[in-house]
Amino acid sequence: MSKHIKVENLSVIFGKPSQVEQAKSMLDTDMHVSEIMEKTGVTVANRNVNFEIYPDELFVIVGLSGSGKSTFIRTLNGLNKPTRGDIIIDGENINDMDNMRLRTFRRKEVSMVFQHFGLLSHRNVLENVEYPLEIQHVDKKERTEKALEAIKQVGLDGWEHHMPSQLSGGMKQRVGLARALVNNPELLLMDEPYSALDPLIRRDMQNELLNLDDSFDRTIVFITHDMNEAFRLGERIALMRDAEVVQIGTPKDFFENPANDYVRDFIADVDKTRILKVRSVMRKPSYTALPSDHPKTLLEKLESGNLEFCYVTDDDNKFLGYVTTEQLKRSKAKSLERLVTEDNTVINRNAYLKDIWKNLSDATFEVAVLDGKKRLRGVISNDDIINVLAD
Amino acid sequence: MLHYPEQFIFEISGIIDRFVDWILDTFGGLFDVITTVVLALFNGFDFVLSAIPWWIYIIAVAYLGFKLYSYLGGLILATMLFLIAMFGLWDPMIYTLVIIFISVFVSLIIGIPSGIIMAKSKPIESIFKPILDGMQTMPSFVYLIPAIMLFGIGRVPAVVATTIYAVPPLIRLTYLGITNVNKEVVEAGKSFGSTPAQMLFKIEIPQSISTIMTGINQTTMMAMAMVVIASMIGAEGIGDEVLISIRRLEVGRGFQAGLAIVFLAIILDRILQGFASKFNRTEGLDV
Ligand SMILES: Nc1ncnc2c1ncn2[C@@H]1O[C@H](COP(=O)(O)OP(=O)(O)OP(=O)(O)O)[C@@H](O)[C@H]1O
Ligand SMILES: [Mg+2]
Questions:
Q1: Contact A24, A13 (CB under 8 A)
Q2: Of A105, A116, A163, the CB nearest to B284
Q3: Contact in structure between A206 and A179 (CB atoms under 8 Å)
Q4: Is B68 inside any structural domain?
Q5: Which end of chain A has fewer surrounding CB within 10 Å, N or C?
Q6: Which domains are seen in chain A, by residue range?
Q7: Ligand 2 centroid to A236 CA: how many Å?
Q8: Residue to substitute in A12, A14, A223 for testing ligand 1 pocket (most ligand atoms within 8 angstroms of CB)
């Protein structure tokens, strides 16, 4: 239900075809993009970009104006074509899509939210949100139903029959989001969606997005030039500069190991305690058990890993509780089910570090981190937080 | 040495005559078709416009003026129309309107698609642009000459000349409207998987409708201006009134006809602009 994206050696160059050909051969030299531009007259917007975006991830791309962020995200849905390199989405190379396939891809699998909303000013809110379904010839009744649902999701119920020009910026962007959600895409692209909004509204919208993200399985690629926004939202972040990716990692990685001075400067103004959330500091649990696991084999595994306990989830990753190694040793039970202890000291992954710090310092071991659907997403301990905030 | 030497005079009129003859011989069929179509349109429009009683026009104009502007607006426009009738110029006015409506009708059919194609295709854009520029700088008289050459004297060349004179603003403004649709809106349309036809009919045309309406207004006003001049090649109507009074040096009659032309122009312009601004209001620019 959500997309996996692999970007391999992607370069995008704007210019006349003959110049682009000439510039291509300079991509792999250590010439700076401005130098290539001087020599050939082209704009290198993305240069040898390599990374992966995992299913269900909220991936943020951050960088100064002109660093190539929009160019990248627009390549993901075919608005720009790669000059060189590949983008592979769930095993399918975007270069191999013909027009028909690209249209279906855009209609069913990917949607985009725009900085200046890109709403159709001649249609009211409902008609705007219906648009993606309308062009697929979904019948009127069904598309209205789905559109109303999407409008409700973004908290705009009651505004269906207003024209976009009657709405505030924040509301317009909610319409943009509802329109992007209405076809239930597996990949959501957001190009600086909140940059045109004032700071207070922006904060609200960010929190709403995190809540939405919590209740869906959906890969989100989010672009911003605001480092604070990037760290508030991103599970992983790519920092771009002059068409290249400078560093990729979790917010924690950025603070602990900035790749160079540029990154260090970039994150210098970020107030860590205010923006860092549990989700950006948490770790993957070292081992998770299923209720169907056999106690004996589980015990062996835990002992070999030197673990005192592990968390138990069901097949859908829904959190059930934990079992301790001690328990396993003492019990003769054939099934794990009855051994699972309920756990009440769980944390939502969107909680701010400053708010959960107290709870954590009472806990003796790491605490489970859950999402909105009570699925286990990671673990966090007091030490994790101290490490991040320390320097 | 005062006079241009006679032995250097070389008249091209003969060549042109022969060229026109050749065109008529070769494409005669085409001109016959055009003549038939124009005459059919003329009879159709004339039939409809003449069948409506005069007072319905006045009520309709009053109503539109009131709806689009105010009570006073409706009153002024209706009074103007009434004055035309009072001057005894009702029938010539209907005749003039028929030619204007046909020209606008044909301009819509030719102009809007041309503007769209021009916006979509770079090569066609680069061909059309200089032609449109040329057409708009040429004085209106010039259009009469080829019209007479190819269609003789009468209603048909009048309609043809009026249409050709009137169509450029509609092409240009359709083109402008489509190319100026907000870039992000176009991208949004594409990003949801619209087909080119869906882009055009659900996004680009609705988004540029107020610009196109302005084009229709300008085209109508150009037709209005041309139809008066076209009476020189045999179109009847109010323009003919002016022409006759000039020939006979009847100042009062000429002035009266001139006033009627001004009134008619104002009525058409106000009503069309009123419609155009209605479209504008529903749009809102910053979205
Ligand atoms: N269609 C295009 N044709 C030519 N040059 C382009 C095109 N699109 C982008 N560029 C250039 O590519 C470079 C990267 O642009 P891009 O829009 O990707 O930057 P960005 O990081 O999104 O910046 P911003 O924060 O201003 O949106 C810029 O120099 C821009 O001028
Ligand atoms: Mg951008």
A1: yes
A2: A163
A3: no
A4: no
A5: C
A6: 5-270 (3.40.50.300), 288-390 (3.10.580.10)
A7: 19
A8: A14
User: Is A121's CB within 8 Å of B203's CB?
Assistant: no
Look over chain A and give the mean of its residue pLDDT values, rounded to a whole number.
Answer: 89
Chain A contact for B202, CB < 8 A? yes
Are A77 and A105 spatial neighbours (Cβ–Cβ below 8 Å)? yes
Is B214 touching A (CB cutoff 8 A)? no
Supply the pTM of this predicted model: 0.83
Q: What own/partner pairs with CB < 8 Å and gap ≥ 24 does B120-128 have? A: B120/B178, B125/B175, B128/B171, B128/B175
CA of A12 to the centre of ligand 1 (A): 10
Determine which residue's CA is closest to atom 8 belonging to ligand 1.
Answer: A71
Q: Ligand 1: residues whose CB is within 6 Å?
A: A 14, 43, 45, 63, 65-71, 225
d(CA A115, ligand 2 centre) in Å: 8
- Under 8 Å CB pairs connecting chains A and B tally to 82
Cβ neighbours, 10 Å, residue A181:
24
Contact state of A121 with B184 under an 8 Å Cβ cutoff:
no
Ligand 1 atom 18: residue of nearest CA = A68
Q: What is the Rg, in whole angstroms, of the alpha carbon atoms belonging to chain B?
A: 22
Answer yes or no: is B71 within a domain: no
Q: What is the CATH number of the domain that holds B128?
A: 1.10.3720.10
Give the integer Cα–Cα distance in Å for A171 and A177. 10
Instruction: Determine, for residues B192 and A165 on separate chains, whether the beta-carbon distance falls below 8 Å.
Output: no
**Which residue segment(s) compose the domain that B145 sits in?**
12-51+87-286
Nearest CA in chain B to A118: B185
Rounded Cα gap, residues A238 and A254, in angstroms: 10
pLDDT band at A203 (very low <50, low <70, confident <90, very high): confident
- Residue A292's SS3 state is coil
Q: Do the chains contact at B287 and A172, CB–CB below 8 Å?
A: yes
Residue B257, CB half-sphere, CA atoms under 13 Å: how many?
A: 21
Q: Give me A213's structure tokens.
A: 């993200």
Over residues A266-299, the pLDDT tens digits come to 888 787 777 788 887 888 888 888 888 888 888 8
C-beta neighbour count of A234 within 10 angstroms? 25
Which residues of chain A make contact with B286, given a CB cutoff of 8 A?
A: 165
Judge whether B265 lies within some domain: yes
Cα–Cα distance for residue pair A173/B152, rounded to 1 Å: 62
Burial A258-297 (b: 16+ CB within 10 A, else e): beeeebeebbeebebeebbbbbbbbeebeebbebebebee
A17 SS3 class: helix
How does pLDDT run across A317-374, given as a tens digit for each residue? 889 888 888 888 888 787 888 888 888 788 888 888 878 877 777 766 788 898 888 8
Beta strand segments in chain A, E: 5-14, 43-53, 58-63, 84-89, 92-93, 110-113, 187-191, 219-224, 236-241, 244-249, 288-289, 309-313, 319-324, 347-348, 367-370, 376-380
Is the predicted ipTM greater than 0.90, yes or no?
Answer: no
- Least distant ligand from the CA of A47: 1
